[in-house]
Amino acid sequence: MPKLALIRTIKPKNNDARREHRNVVLTVCSPLPSTSIRAKQVQNLFLSLALHEDTLMPPQPSQPELIHINDLLTVLVRSFLQSAPFGILRRTRMLKAQHNEFITHTGPGTPMGELFRRYWMPALLTEELPSNDCPPVRVKLLSERLVAFRDSKGRYGLIDEFCAHRGVSLWFGRNEECGLRCPYHGWKFDVTGQCLEVPSEPVESGFVRKIKLKSYPLVERGGILWTYMGPPERRPPLPEWEFAMVSDEQRFVSKRFQQCNWLQAMEGGIDSSHVSWLHRDNINKDPLFKGAKGNRYNMGDMMPAFEVVESAGGLYIGARRNAEEGRYYWRITQWVMPSFTMIPPRGGHTVHGHFWIPIDDENCWAWSYDFHPIRRITDAEREAMKLGKGIHVLNRPGTYFPVANKDNDYLINREAQRRGDTYSGVEGIAMQDASLQESMGPVVDRSQENLVSCDNGIIMARHRLIRAAKELADRGVTPPGVDVAHQRVRSASVILPPEQAFKDAAREALTVRAGVAPASV
Ligand code: FES
Ligand SMILES: [Fe+2]
């Protein structure tokens, strides 16, 4: 019985063939004959296989890989059954229910929760704690209820929300004289959660020293207060995302509450194919998007071809559309584990991206940033961002809850939809996304999906997450994206000749280069 199959790629013979994919030669050890099929099929086959085999992850079709022959046979049989004329069998359960739970739950002790706890995550905007001894702020992250405060010396703290005495919420606390004092009986805690005073007990008893609340570090960088909720001995260096390292004048950051699980929100961030539909009317009108040459390619080709390649920290997700003279317009999204997404830029506009951070299993924070590596954000751009243009939203004053939301049907305007002002009737790119993602329910049932080739980025991201969470749980392997080198990456939009693989041709464009403008069309 043969053991292994060798897969290698051969370049397309006809470089002008718009929809041709690279051919792949499957050389199977005796007794099966060699066969040649299209790479796209192979990639889909492997993805299908990976979805049904917990341990096997999808290899890249462009890289030589060895797989077990039994796995290959499974692939081929599945492929046969799913192909015409067996269309009735095409519908496939795409993610088992237990995998869906595995990948979406992030509370304490869950595998995905432990994964998230290995990263620095945005917890608050710096503006939420504007001055020493300002009011504390409730923070819920990864299903843990916490309270953040800034003490009399300007130190930031993120501690258990509930008083160690009898459980009062310290959000009601008095922030005074280097500590947060519970108003019920006066117990007082510092930014590390250490109890400083228990007024009813004699100081000599030493009782106070034995009381300490759970706490996490809270550190300012790039207009954001970041926290790390994992084991202290595994705390990585501070994050070095490019947008957070530039000057304040070059950056704008916002956040909004989203009423669904973090994963379905994040999957919108790596789903480049929806842009030509849902946001089609915004691309040429939004002040932060319009005028870019790339917009024409975006709207001129509604069937982009996707190529997804693993990067050190996550994935490069390349969407390929036709440009002039047989060349391709590539939009390359970066996904960095576990939930950081970078949107390809447009023309000379600012560059944007998101962090999708779980509040609990049914809500998340959608963090949105804009920045430019080599220039300040203009007053007009900043004003537009504050008004909810681009990827930002208009929040209710004094809150991070969008004005258009689930309770008012996102202010959907059917007339505007009919006129073609907005494709979905909802105003603004971010709320167009949020409305549809929230409409899927708090946690979408992924076992009922029917995924297609343009979902490959999503499929591969899910599997990379599952694999990393398992490796962390089983062997303590540090997940991708923790290393700051994995964070020094850029998204890009480029035009390339057809024979060039995007990940090679755009290698420089996909890394941070100080003082160099982003690669953008
Ligand atoms: S409950 Fe906080 S001091 Fe008693
Ligand atoms: Fe979107």
Can you characterise this structure?
Strands 16, 17, 18, 19, 20, 21, 22 and 23 form an eight-stranded antiparallel sheet that branches. This protein is α+β, with helices and mostly antiparallel strands and 521 residues long. The protein has helices spanning 39-52, 69-82, 97-104, 111-116, 242-245, 262-269, 275-278, 280-283, 294-300, 379-386, 414-419, 429-439, 456-475, 484-487, 502-505, and strands spanning 4-10, 23-28, 35-38, 65-68, 120-125, 137-141, 144-150, 156-160, 174-175, 180-181, 188-189, 195-197, 215-216, 218-221, 224-228, 251-258, 305-310, 314-322, 328-336, 340-342, 351-360, 363-371, 492-496. The radius of gyration is 25 Å and the shape is globular. Residues 268, 274, 278-279, 429, 433 line the site of fe (ii) ion. The site of FE2/S2 (inorganic) cluster (FES) has 9 residues, from loops.
Write the CATH architecture name of the largest domain.
Alpha-Beta Complex
Helix content: 10-25%
Looking at CATH, which topology of the largest domain would you report? Naphthalene 1,2-dioxygenase Alpha Subunit, Chain A, domain 1
Q: Please state the overall shape, judged from the principal axes of the Cα atoms.
A: globular
CATH class of the largest domain: Alpha Beta
Hetero compounds: FE2/S2 (inorganic) cluster, fe (ii) ion
Q: Largest sheet, if any?
A: 8 strands, antiparallel
The radius of gyration is 25 Å
N- to C-terminal distance? 52 Å
Secondary structural class: alpha+beta
Counting DSSP E segments of at least 2 residues, the number of strands comes to 23
Strand percent estimate? 15-25%
* Rounded mean pLDDT score: 86
Please count the helical segments: 15
The low-confidence parts are 1-70, 79-93
Structural domains: how many: 3
